[in-house]
Amino acid sequence: MISVKKFSATWCGPCKTLKPIFEEVKQAISGVQFEEYDVDSQHEIASKYNIRSVPTVIIEKDGKEVQRFAGVSSKIAYINAINESL
User: Fold this and answer.
1) What pTM, to 2 d.p., does this model score?
2) Residue-wise pLDDT tens digits, 54-74
3) Any catalytic annotation for residue 12?
4) Which of 3, 14, 72, 79 sits CB 3.0–4.6 Å from 33 for a disulfide?
5) For 2-85, which CATH superfamily applies?
């Protein structure tokens, strides 16, 4: 099982830039679990994943981290990373 976790904050400018990109990635790939977390209201899970900057996107396969993106990347970068994990 592949899961993609996005950590962001409402006050974060780059997070606002990532939002439509992340939505396009969600539409482009099926069979993958997408999760979104606000680091301010869900700080316990952000701490568990050692989130030090936002936005951060983590790709997990079978519960183990296989890739981490800090900052905003391109739609194709996320899609390629997810496809490599399948």
Assistant:
1) 0.96
2) 999 999 999 999 999 999 999
3) yes
4) 3
5) Glutaredoxin (3.40.30.10)
